[in-house]
Amino acid sequence: MHNFAIFFASIFTGNILLTTYLGMCSFLSVSKELKTSLGLGAAVVFVMATTTPLNWMVYQWLLIPFGLEYLRFIVFIIVIAAFVQLTEMALERYSEGLYQALGIFLPLITVNCAILGASLFMVIREYTLATSFFFGLGSGIGWALAIVAMAGIRQKLKSAKIPPGLEGPGITLVIAGFMAMAFMGFSGMIALT
User: Fold this and answer.
1) How far is CA 94 from CA 61, 85, 99, 107, 148, in A?
2) Model's pTM, two decimal places?
3) Which residue of 121, 153, 157, 180 pairs with 18 in a disulfide if CB–CB is 3.0 to 4.6 A?
4) pLDDT of residue 193
């Protein structure tokens, strides 16, 4: 039940994008089109679900035993960048179609602060390896769900009459605030014992 609660909470009530506003830059810039939002969201889910447990292993099995915990920021960024680069090379070699479909999104997620944030939260909250995986997967799904929802809303807004002072980033931030409140409505659905 604990891993399921962490997974569910990281998608909805503790959505890494809507509660801590991590990954906001790519959220605002890429959420203009539904197709690009789906591509970036899928890439973030894959990378976050994989690098969070990878960083847990590096932290628990290398950094702590050698007393190098203070290097976690640098090491986590290196692990994320290396994993994204390896993934990009493997996709280019073995799945040219998927590589072309993702395009710029794979390199873009290297600098997505939500991915680093998930690894840092995993350390701060002292998750186990399994819990780190569920947290990373849930956080990726939550981030993807938020960007896809925003893209759908922004496409509908193209034909809406918006006051001049709210056009562009203004209305996007207002919608993000409403989305954050809506996701917080899921609070209390699962009681942890």
Assistant:
1) 31, 14, 9, 18, 27
2) 0.89
3) 180
4) 39
